[in-house]
Design goal:
mainly alpha, elongated, two-stranded antiparallel ribbon, 5 strands
Length: 238
Amino acid sequence: MERPGGLHEDDPPGGDSVTPEHAALIDGEPLPRERVDSFLETRPVRGAGNCATSHDEPAPAIRQPEAPSVARQRRRWATQVVLTDELARRACAARGLKPPPEVSPAKILTLAESDVADLGSIVAAALAHSPAARTLLAALEAEQTVPESAVRDYYDRNQDRFLTPDALRRGVTPFDGAAPEDVLSYEDVREAISRELRRAAGRQAFFGWLDQSRAGVTYSHGHEHPGDPSHPDHEHRH
């Protein structure tokens, strides 16, 4: 039904005309708009960038209307999260990976604020929402090889991270000339460093995969990337 001003009942607040059938086309195949709507119903209003929610309680319902620009950006942000889930499902199928069973949308995993800062809100929320995305990330991380020289270099350049508990209590810093006994040995921390570097490399591989996979996506009006400068509400935030 048309509303005043040429808008339709299924248009979001603010008047963006959204294609009713789908949110995007992935290499010509539709991503149903219903999946975006379902995801939006589980998200709190306190900001699209905040992907943390309780393990046990559903996200709070919308209690007051959002500004039209906020509503439009939330839909675009949600489209990216759902799209990442769909792309990850396809990647897992192509790799012969079997993600764990789906969880209830109301029990999306909680992510630490540091993860949101490191990953960006879209990727962090996608990993919290999507078993397929987590499975793919784990596979990419397992494929990474960290040279011994990179591990040693990280240790040598970040001595402040490897001070002993006693040295920390005494306020010792590497910049003040820490004694050898004030720093954990390379052998003691080598495995932890290697694990951290492999994790970082896995995340970079995930970002690269996602950028490449999104190249074949065409968005319906109202579902564009929230950072797309072609629409007036764009924000350069991930």
